[in-house]
Specification:
With 157 residues, the protein is an alpha+beta fold. The chain folds into 2 domains: 32 residues, no CATH class; 93 residues, no CATH class. The chain is 24% helix and 31% strand. It is built from 4 helices and 10 strands, in the order αββαβααβββββββ. It has a 4-stranded antiparallel β-sheet. It has a two-stranded antiparallel ribbon with strand order 1-2. The protein has a two-stranded antiparallel sheet with strand order 7-8. A hairpin with a 2-residue loop joins strand 4 and strand 5. The two termini are 33 Å apart.
């Protein structure tokens, strides 16, 4: 069966609207293309808040479940500047959040270590990885090799 024959195959959705199977695949891929995960954007170790239960992630990847948890929390500030951060170090709140940035500390922590996480989007249609440099994490995508010389079958990344 050729690819063009595959497109002619028909399926129905719940509303009775007809799509080609290729349309269905594209719709599924479009829904799944962006996934939010939690990363540690600064140097240091990846920490998980004490209030987040790893058992409640319903089989999801830990970083996906953690991103959903962070997004479910209310924003505490419109902007997190040095004054907000300095006040947070000494106040009784366990977290501060502004959009995708999330700072937290463990309750009753005498050392007052502040951890930082960030929720980032990953395009799962592309091959990707979490890059790590001294604990600072970022998302890196793998690129397909480029043909340099067809006669030699030579490629570069």
């Amino acid at each position: 069966m050729e690819d063009n024959d595959f497109i002619l195959e028909r399926i129905k959705n719940d509303n009775g609207k007809r799509y080609t199977s290729q349309d269905a695949i594209e719709r599924r891929n479009a829904r799944k293309k962006l996934v939010k995960i939690a990363i540690n954007p600064k140097h240091g170790s990846f920490a998980i808040p004490k209030y987040f239960s790893k058992e409640d992630n319903n089989g999801k990847d830990l970083r996906v479940a953690l991103a959903e948890y962070i997004e479910s929390l209310e924003d505490t500030h419109r902007d997190i500047n040095q004054d907000v951060y300095d006040n947070f170090v000494n106040d009784h709140n366990w977290y501060i959040k502004c959009g995708k940035l999330f700072f937290f500390k463990e309750p009753n922590d005498l050392v007052k270590i502040i951890h930082r996480l960030e929720v980032v989007e990953v395009d799962t249609r592309r091959k990707w990885k979490i890059d790590n440099y001294d604990g600072a994490e970022s998302i890196g995508y793998f690129e397909e090799p480029k043909l340099v010389n067809a006669d030699l079958n030579m490629y570069e990344w």
